[in-house]
Write a structure and sequence with these properties.
73% helix, 4 helices, mainly alpha
C-alpha cells in the first residue's frame, strides 16, 4: 500500500469519526478543534477529507497481489 493510500484512508477515518459524532451528538470535533466550521483550517480539513474520498475510489479498482496468489 502506497503512502498516499494510507494518508487517504487515515483522513477518511477522521472524517468518518467526525460525521459519527455529528450524527450521534451534534458535535463537530474538527470545528471544535480548529475554532469553528467557518475557520480556514476546518475548511482545509473538510476539503482534504473529500479529496481523500475521491482518491480512495481508485482503491476499488487497484490490482491486489493477495487476491492473485489465492486464485
Amino acid at each position: 500500500m502506497r503512502i498516499i493510500d494510507r494518508i487517504a484512508l487515515f483522513l477518511l477515518v477522521v472524517g468518518g469519526l467526525n460525521w459519527g459524532l455529528v450524527g450521534l451528538f451534534q458535535f463537530d470535533l474538527v470545528a471544535w478543534i480548529c475554532g469553528g466550521s467557518e475557520s480556514v483550517i476546518s475548511r482545509i480539513i473538510y476539503v482534504l477529507v473529500a479529496l481523500s474520498a475521491l482518491w480512495s475510489i481508485s482503491l476499488f479498482f487497484k490490482h491486489n497481489e493477495l487476491l492473485e496468489t489465492e486464485a
